[in-house]
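for the writeup, i need someone to sanity check this before i put it in the appendix. the sequnce is what the collaborator sent (i think, or maybe the updated version? ugh). structure was predicted straight from it, no edits. if anything looks off just tell me and ill rerun, i have time this weekend
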Amino acid sequence: MGKEEKEDSGFGFKDKAKAEETLRLLEEHDPNYRRLTVRGLLGRAKRVLSMTKAEEKIKNIKEAMEVFENWLAELEKNKEKKTDKKEKEETKEKKDDKEKDSSPDVEMEDKTKKEDKKDLPADTVPGLGFKDKATAENTLKELEGRDPDYQKLAVKGLIGRAKRVLTCTRDETKISNIKEAMSLFDKFLDDFDTMHLSKQNNPYISLGIVRTCVAKAEGLISEQQKSFIEAYSSVNGEYKRLRTVTEKEGGKTWDIVRNAALKELKEKYADVKLFDEKDEPTKEHLEMLLWAYSPEHARVKKTIQETEEESENNKSEEENNSRKRRSSAKDEESPSKKKKE
């Protein structure tokens, strides 16, 4: 028996019976150990398949792999059910709390927030998929230039969905196509970790701080930065939604435009001072802050106050005062009061 097929632990994948026996043996272990062991066995089985020519042996190993894949799919399904149940319970609790504390003003405010959310652009990139190699290539192209952390998250999500589809698919062509797509995604993730691309992520500074920096910049803002800040404001500072908001000039989405601009600035200002003696951001630092980014994220949050959008605040306050006045007027004109008087 070869090194890859060594089964001293009693676990193995030589055929369907061995796989079923492995799952029984694993029942006495904790869930995390079981999951990791099964995934490890699947990985070893794939390597053995790539070096095996015997038809009978290939057939037996594939049957064993199917047992493991079905077990993992069932595990994932149960996990999703638990998550859904938990979310429903949390939603119900929130709803109950809301009904206890609700007032006409609160209800109106919540309704407005929901309507505002509907009007905002989506926060996920459309057109991503895993049905075949061409789709996977197009997916990776669509993700180019976006936030590295989002790229990794999106690809991992697609791999997870692809694995679930494989467990309930019998069409050989479809299986082959999906596996080719997954192979591309696996290579992307390997390269991602090898090149430490997570370090290139550009976390966003809040919209309130960006507004403060606009005032500090004193007319040194470029037209492109103005357009970016307008876009950032249009999504209420929800940076994820910039993935689907397009720049008018170049036609690219603002997350890609921002990352390209910051790449240049980070190289240009790699060794500059970020704060002056008064703890104010330097001119070079402000250039980056106007793109909602700072290498000193934590310090910026401590030293720069947020500026709220004045017009929205005034409008909201005015509406509240107006409602109070109307309510007060109704009380004064009520028949019961007049009768008492």
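The longest helix spans residues 55-101. The chain has a mean pLDDT of 83.
thx in advance!!
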